[in-house]
Every structure is written in structure tokens, then in C-alpha cells.
Specification:
The complex is a heterodimer of chains A (366) and B (271).
Chain A: E1 2-5, E2 10-13, E3 21-26, H1 35-44, E4 57-61, H2 103-108, E5 143-147, H3 156-160, E6 166-168, E7 175-177, H4 187-191, E8 197-200, E9 205-208, H5 213-216, H6 229-232, E10 239-243, H7 250-257, E11 262-263, E12 274-277, H8 313-320, H9 323-339, H10 345-350
Parallel strand pairs in A: 3-12
Antiparallel strand pairs in A: 1-2, 3-10, 4-5, 6-7, 8-9, 11-12
Chain B: H1 3-31, E1 35-39, E2 60-63, E3 65-66, E4 81-88, E5 92-100, E6 117-123, E7 141-147, E8 152-157, E9 164-165, E10 172-178, E11 181-189, E12 205-214, E13 226-227, E14 231-235, H2 241-270
Parallel strand pairs in B: 1-4, 1-14
Antiparallel strand pairs in B: 2-4, 3-13, 4-5, 5-11, 6-7, 6-12, 7-8, 8-9, 10-11, 12-13, 12-14
Helix pairs in contact in B: 1-2
The chains are: A alpha+beta (366), B alpha+beta (271).
């Protein structure tokens, strides 16, 4: 691993990688509209054995996710980050499969039944548990978690492949599957703890998010450099796209300087390059429906204040590791500063407009 | 020498000639662990993996064990032996492999589905024995590969993880599954199409050969396989048996003629 020095921190890049693309997603802005999911799907996975794949998906947390219970399937590295931890291949149905409906009975057998899924057909699908979340009324909670391939610095999918079909691109660290080398063994599917490599049964090869590399190379619409479709098409513009080692960019500041953008499941030790601004619960209310701006923000069913936060910190720590505490505390502190009339570079970064969210040409050769 | 003595010599000579033709291959099969490749004029009865002609062909039973590759669950394999029969004509070699597998796995249509496979490994060229695990860059191997979901491939490899399909494969495969056993037949012209592909010689020659089997329902794939060690592929020479028989008869006739001559001289000398 090589280190690039910066003002305050060092940026670790994978060996042999010049720069590392990265993305920061602000979970407080995600409305679960799935526009990113559809943008990705229409670009890359709408046919040819990819129908079940969502290189970008948005799942409700707490929830089983996509594929179902992916966090329980293993993969990644051991505690020292040296030995790979073999995982399990998901069941095909856990990705969700099209349901069988009673078309035959209605169309050809004269049934008067309404159109509906066949018995037991409708028992799982992507986002089956959408918006369920957890917690007790009136302070139940959930949030949306958009997920793509993390283009990890220490990718266990790359290590898992006995044919070296997966690799990190030298110029930007994007993790790709060489379709000529791949023979469909699926060690990468099992080895990725985020389950973001998919098996194409028609091609008998594995496929995955490519960080829309043709777009960032300027092969996108109108021949311009564009961010990945999932980011550019996001209505609330919750994603920033750039390079981790671009010291003047917002990603470097959020990740390395303010340390408010954290990794999902850092204990897998693959060192993801997609980072998240952790979620705050929306304003709470009493059972009578009255909003309150007070913090700490939760109430009992009787409307009494409590010291507990709506989204338990323990749960966020399960997802984002112990660094989530400092991240949330820093954001709280900076937000309070602004509320008191002060200025905060961090708050400005988190509320930047579209023109500042994409920095993809900083390392282009003159 | 009396007439009946001469008759005895003739009968003995015929027996020797017959034994010379028939016994050597049988003795060979009993004493060595290789795979004999019998010469046949044509492939009548050998057109399919379960054709009746295969019953007449000698069987080599070879033990298989985990290949011990550096992949997860490498030692979790299920197939313990394989039966191999092989013939050649003047233009092609045909190898039939049979093994017991209670599950017939012919699909890879979902992420946890793996098909059954069998493969043959041969040195790409040269006589030096390549490393058993997929050869090496200096000493590559050819892989003839069948998969239950319908593909057959000729591959070139120079070490683990390097298998690469060759262009314009001339390998054909057919398979049959009967009574819990796979029978898979590979057919390839003796002469390769292109460089770095194994030539099957027309004269009597020993080649190295190894086998591997994957049980799809046990999720066996890549290096998680039952593999053999190197064995001898004993390619027999081409002359049809009647030519060999004529040569033996000629030899016996020389011996008989010599004996008769000696006897004649002895009698002449004795009078």
C-alpha cells in the first residue's frame, strides 16, 4: 500500500494504483426513490442474464437488504486483514425472483379469481421489507442505504479469484472483472462481503458495478465527463464523486479531515471507497403528533423526553463501526454552531450545490 | 523327423504366433497402470459413449483424490475413481470416461448451481512431464474439458489459473447418464489444428495423461476437484493385426524350414 501525504492525514491507496475514485453518500438526504437503481439498471443490467442484478440498490435499514441477509453471508478478511474469510453464495431466491401469477387460470381456464401471485410465490423480493425498520411507536425508525460496489482498496473479490480475472484499474482503482479471463467460478461472489459481484448465468461469468467508467472517461452523453449515472441522476443529489487522494476535494475533507464520512462494515477489512454520512433520525413527535426540535430528540409513548436517540447508536455502530460516534458528534457540533449563527465549512460541504459534487478531471493530463 | 513330429512343430508354431498376436496387450493391461489406446479400423459400435463396442475395449481404472489446489474447500471432493477406455483410428482418438455420480448436474442457471465436469490433461508438446497442476509456463498442458451444461473446450494452460480456450477447437464430446453413472466420450483428430496442441502419434508411443472430475451438486468448481496423477497413455502402433500375424507366420516358417533343413542334413549325414 502506498501513502500520499496531505496536510493533515495520509491517504492509503492500493499498491499499483495512481489515484482512487471515491464516493460519499449523505444518508440524511436519501428519500428511497430508487432513481439511482433505475439509472443503473437502464444503463447496464436490463437484459442478457442481468435481470436480477442491481449493481446499485437502495435498501431499508434496519432490514434484510439485497440479497436477503447479505451481512450474514461472510466474505472479506480476518481481523488482521491478511487471510481471506470465505463466504457463502446467496440463494438465487434471496435476490428476489419474478413471481408466478395465475395468468393461466384467468386467461385460459375461465377462473373468476382476481389476478394475483400463485400460492407462496410472493414471499420475498428486493425491498420486501421496505420502510419496516425497527423501534417502537411513536419513535420507530428506518433509513435508506444506497449501495454500489465499494471499489475497495483491499478487495477480497480480487484476492478470491484463482484466475486473477478481477483487478483494480491502475489509473483510478476501479475494480473490474476481465470478461475474457472470467470462467464463472463465483469465488468473487462468495468472497465479496457486500455481495456486490453477481453471477450472470447466461454468460457464465461474474459481473459488477463498473463505476460507470465510460462516463468518467468522457464517453458519456455529449462526450462529456460525467459522474456515475446513479449519482448524477439522484434527485436530492446525495452523492459526491471524486478522488480520495484529491486533497482539495470535498471527499478528502469529509473522509480524512473532518472524519464524518465513514465506511459501511469496516470490520470486513476490505477498505471500501464508498463512504456514508451517517443518518440522524427525523424530528420526533409525541403520540399526539406534535413535533419537537429538542435534542436529544426522542420521546416515550406518553410524550416524555428521554435521553435515548431515535436510531440507537449501537445499531449505527454495527453498521459503520466505532468511528460513527465521532462522526455524529462532529456533525452535531457543527450544526449547533450554524444554528447559533456561526460558520461551518463542514455544513457548507454537506450542503454544497451540484457544481461542487463532482470532481473527476483534477488528475487529467494537461 | 516323423510326419507327426512335423505336425506338432507346425501346431506349436501356430500357437506361438497366435499368442504373439493376442497375449501381449492383455499382459500389458494387467501389469501397468496406464491407459491403453487400442487401434481400431473403424468406430463401429463406438459411436456413442454407451455403444456395444466399448465392452470389447480394455478398461483402466484410475484412483482420484483432491487436487489440493489453493481454493476454499479444495479437499471437499466426492468422486474417487474413474474408468477410462481409449481407441484410435488412423485419423482420430476417442477416449471414454465413466464414473459414478448419483446426481446428474447439467445446469448452471442460478448462482448456487454448478454442473458436472470432466477433463483430460495432456502435455502440449514434448516428452518431459509437466507439473501435474496445470503445467507450467515452460511446459504447458492441453486440457480437454466437458461440462454438463453443454460446453466442450480445448484449453491451453501454463500453470494454475491460466487456462485459455484455443481457437477453432476440433474436440467433440458426447455424454450419457445411465444408472447413476456418467459416460463421457471425447473425440479429437490425431493431428492438432494449430500450435501448442497435443499431437497423438501414429506409432506406438507413451504420452502422459491425467484426469479430473467435478461433482456439481457438491459445488465442486475450479481447483476443488478430484484429480488423478499422471498416467501413461499407451498409444498402440497402427499396423492391423493381420499384418502382424503374417510377420509372425513368416518367422515361424523360417524356424520350421531351418529345423527341416537341419533334420535333412542329419539324416543325409547318418546314411
Amino acid at each position: 500500500m502506498s501513502s500520499h501525504s496531505s496536510r493533515n492525514e495520509t491517504v492509503d491507496l492500493a499498491d499499483g494504483v495512481d489515484h482512487q475514485v471515491a464516493m460519499v453518500m449523505d444518508l440524511n438526504k436519501c428519500i428511497g426513490c430508487q432513481t439511482c437503481t433505475i439509472a443503473c439498471k437502464t444503463n447496464w443490467t436490463d437484459s442478457g442474464g442481468r435481470e436480477y442484478m442491481y449493481w446499485n440498490n437502495v435498501e431499508t435499514k434496519p432490514g434484510a437488504g439485497y440479497p436477503k441477509d447479505w451481512e450474514e453471508l461472510g466474505g472479506g478478511w480476518d481481523d488482521e486483514g491478511e487471510e481471506r474469510t470465505p463466504g457463502e453464495l446467496p440463494e438465487q431466491d434471496d435476490y428476489g425472483a419474478p413471481w408466478d401469477f395465475n395468468h393461466e387460470q384467468i386467461m385460459y381456464e375461465g377462473s373468476d379469481e382476481p389476478l394475483r401471485p400463485m400460492d407462496d410465490a410472493a414471499d420475498w423480493a428486493p425491498n420486501w421489507d421496505e420502510d419496516e425498520g425497527a423501534g417502537e411507536y411513536p419513535n420507530s425508525y428506518y433509513f435508506y442505504l444506497p449501495r454500489i460496489c465499494n471499489h475497495c482498496t483491499h478487495p477480497s473479490c480480487v484476492e478470491a479469484c484463482p484466475r486473477s480475472a478481477l483487478y483494480k484499474r491502475e489509473e483510478d482503482g476501479i475494480v473490474l472483472v476481465d470478461q475474457d479471463r472470467c470462467r464463472g467460478y463465483r469465488y468473487c461472489v462468495e468472497g465479496c462481503p457486500y455481495k456486490k459481484v453477481y453471477y450472470n448465468a447466461m454468460k457464465k461469468k461474474s459481473e459488477k458495478c463498473i463505476f460507470c467508467y465510460p462516463r468518467i472517461e468522457g464517453e458519456g452523453p455529449e462526450g462529456e465527463v460525467r459522474g456515475p449515472a446513479c449519482a448524477e441522476d439522484c434527485p436530492p443529489q446525495l452523492r459526491m464523486v471524486g478522488y480520495l487522494d484529491d486533497e482539495d476535494g470535498p471527499i478528502h475533507k469529509l473522509v480524512n479531515e473532518y472524519e464524518v464520512a465513514v465506511r459501511l462494515h469496516p470490520e470486513f477489512r476490505t477498505e471500501p471507497n464508498v463512504y456514508y454520512i451517517p443518518p440522524f433520525a427525523p424530528p420526533t413527535h409525541t403520540q399526539a403528533g406534535e413535533s419537537t426540535d429538542e435534542e436529544p430528540p426522542t420521546h416515550t409513548q406518553a410524550g416524555e423526553s428521554t435521553d435515548e436517540e431515535r436510531i440507537p447508536r449501537e445499531y449505527l455502530e454495527e453498521l459503520f463501526g466505532p468511528q460513527v460516534h465521532d462522526a455524529l458528534d462532529t456533525i452535531n457540533r457543527e450544526r449547533e454552531r450554524v444554528r447559533r449563527g456561526g460558520e461551518s465549512e463542514l455544513m457548507e460541504l454537506l450542503n454544497s450545490d451540484r457544481s461542487e459534487k463532482y470532481r473527476l478531471e483534477v488528475f487529467n493530463e494537461a | 523327423m516323423k510326419r507327426n513330429e512335423l505336425l506338432l512343430v507346425g501346431v506349436l508354431a501356430t500357437l506361438i504366433a497366435g499368442a504373439a498376436v493376442l497375449l501381449p496387450p492383455i499382459a500389458e493391461a494387467q501389469t501397468e497402470s496406464g491407459v491403453p489406446v487400442e487401434y481400431v479400423d473403424n468406430t463401429n459400435g463406438l459411436e456413442t459413449p454407451t455403444g456395444s463396442g466399448w465392452e470389447e475395449i480394455q478398461t483402466a481404472t484410475l484412483p482420484l483424490s483432491s487436487a489440493g489446489a489453493d481454493v476454499p474447500s479444495a479437499n471437499d471432493v466426492t468422486v474417487e475413481q474413474i474408468q477410462v477406455k481409449a481407441v484410435r483410428t488412423n485419423s482420430q482418438i476417442r477416449i471414454r470416461m465413466s464414473w459414478t455420480d448419483p446426481t446428474r448436474d447439467m445446469s448452471e442457471s442460478s448462482v448456487r448451481e454448478f454442473d458436472d465436469n470432466v477433463a483430460i490433461q495432456l502435455p502440449a508438446d514434448g516428452e518431459e512431464e509437466p507439473p501435474i497442476a496445470m503445467g507450467s509456463p515452460e511446459n504447458p498442458v492441453n486440457i480437454w474439458y466437458w461440462s454438463g451444461s453443454g460446453n466442450s473446450e480445448e484449453l491451453l494452460a501454463g500453470g494454475p489459473g491460466t487456462t485459455t480456450p484455443v481457437n477453432e477447437s476440433t474436440l467433440r464430446t458426447e455424454q450419457a447418464y445411465e444408472n447413476g453413472r456418467w459416460h463421457v466420450m471425447f473425440t479429437r483428430p490425431l493431428d492438432p489444428r494449430g500450435d501448442a496442441r497435443t499431437t497423438i502419434p501414429r506409432e506406438a508411443t507413451d504420452l502422459n495423461i491425467a484426469f479430473a472430475v467435478w461433482n456439481g451438486s457438491n459445488m465442486e468448481v475450479a481447483g476443488q476437484k478430484s484429480a488423478s496423477q499422471w498416467h501413461r497413455l499407451a498409444v498402440s502402433s497402427g499396423p492391423p493385426p493381420y499384418e502382424r500375424f503374417l510377420w509372425v507366420v513368416a518367422g515361424v516358417m523360417i524356424v520350421v524350414t531351418t529345423l527341416l533343413t537341419i533334420e535333412g542334413i542329419r539324416r543325409t549325414g547318418g546314411e
